[in-house]
Write a structure and sequence with these properties.
64% helix
Length: 132
């Protein structure tokens, strides 16, 4: 049994997780072919990364078939939450406002994204008032 997922997924592991989230449970060959569409990726490289991901608890392996099938051990939202929480503590001293400001100033946001963010903030604000 793998240990709890690490918030320190590498870029390569995150790429593979993206494939697993989009395609669902997949063989090494299926993951490799999906990654190959982005950039050439070797089968043995994908296999090794999936083995490491299984050890880290980022993926589960079904060994009941001849070709092992891998699936993400966590949802995309769970991984995002762990990464953001880690970054928030490590880089922004726990300040959510600094993180949001940096994210918006670094990449910008469209008017529709800003409206969506306002709606989310209003929802969060309402949830906090209810718990007071």
């Amino acid at each position: 049994m793998g240990r709890r997922a690490s918030p320190h997924a590498t870029d390569a592991e995150l790429e593979i997780l993206q494939v697993l989230w989009q395609q669902g449970p997949s063989t090494v060959r299926e993951v490799q072919q999906a990654l190959d569409a982005i950039r050439p990726t070797g089968y043995t490289t994908v296999l090794k990364i999936l083995q490491i991901m299984t050890d880290k608890g980022l993926a589960h392996r079904d060994e009941s078939q001849r070709a092992h099938v891998y699936e993400a051990a966590m949802t995309e939202e769970e991984v995002q939450e762990e990464i953001v929480s880690h970054m928030l503590d490590r880089v922004f001293s726990g300040s959510a406002s600094k993180l949001v400001f940096r994210a918006l100033s670094a990449k910008g946001a469209s008017p529709s994204e800003l409206d969506e963010i306002r709606t989310m903030l209003d929802t969060l604000k309402g949830e906090h008032h209810e718990s007071d």
